[in-house]
C-alpha cells in the first residue's frame, strides 16, 4: 500500500498506549528493511535539492545505500575539497506528497467514523489521527531532524559532555527538507561486545555514560531521543557514545516527567502503592481509581520483569588466517518488550487511565536500556545504581555525574 501505511503500521507498533495489543504486535512486521530506490532517482533529488551538480559538492557518492527505510535511504559520500566523510540521508521520491494525501484521507475517514459512531468520538479517534499525522510529517522534514540534532549537540556542549558523547555534525549548507548531510561517525552498535572491547576497556562505563547522557537530555534538552535501539546508539572508535538518527524525538511536559520520576523511583524500590499513585497522576481519567487494587495488579505485572530474557546471538566467522572472530549482539525481542508494557497499559485502562504518548516513548527507551544493562552490566540495577542519575535536581553540567 505504500510508505504511508508502512509508517502508519510503525506508529501503531510504537504506540501501545493507543492501540490494542494484537495490532501492536502484528505491525512490528513493518520494521523490516525496505527495498532501495534506484540510485538514478537519488541523484536526481540531490541535484534538485542542492541546486548544483553533485560532483561540485561531493568527490563521490556511493551508489549502494548504507541503509534503506520506508521514507528515506542513506548513502556514504565524501565532501569535495575538505576530504571529510559524510552520510547523506535522502527522502525517497514523492514520499511527502503521498503522505500528505494519504493522511488527509485518513483524517477525513476518521471524522466520518466519529460522526457515524459517537463512541469513537469519546475514544478521541480524530485526536489520535492528528497525532499520527503530526509525527509522520515531522519525520519527513529533515530541517526539523537537523534542528533536533543541533539541539542535542548544544545540550552536550552546555553540559560539558562533548568528551563523552556526540551526535553527528550537520552540514547545513548541504541540507534541505529532503536531503540531510551529516558527519560520518565510525563505531559499532553498543551491543557489539567483541568490537566494543577493542575500543574501550570497560563496556559497563560506556553504558553508564549513555544512560546519564540520555537521562540528562530529558531535562536539559528541547527534545529527547525516542528511538535508542542498538542501531542508533553506538560505541565510537574514539571512546565516546554516539547518538544517531533523530527522526523520532519526544517532548515531555513537566507534569508527565514529575509523575514519571515518581514512577521510576517506585519501580526501583518495588513500592507498588507509590507506583499506582504516580500512574494515576500521569493518566487522564474521569473516574475514581481504587489505588490499592491498582497497586496489587501492578505488582503482579512487574514481578514478571525479572523473567524477561535477553537473547544474545553469538556469530562465529572464519577469518583468512584461520582465526575465529567472535561477535556478540543483543537481539532485542520487540514482542517481549511490548508484552510487559501492554500489560501495564491494559490494566491501567481497566481503571479508566489513558496515558500520553510521551509516556510510551519514555518506557520504550527504558526497556531498551534495560536490555543493554543485562548484556553489558548484568550486575548493576539501572534504577538504583548510584552512578546513574535520574533525579530532577541533578546538575547536568557537573561532569562527575558521568564519570
UniProtKB/TrEMBL annotation:
InterPro entries for the chain: ABC1_dom (IPR004147), Kinase-like_dom_sf (IPR011009), Mito_struct-func_regulator (IPR051130)
GO cellular component: plasma membrane; plastoglobule
Annotated coiled-coil segments of the chain: none
Lineage top rank: taxon: Eukaryota
Boundaries of every ABC1 atypical kinase-like domain copy: 31-277
Pfam families in the record: ABC1 (PF03109)
The protein's name: ABC1 atypical kinase-like domain-containing protein
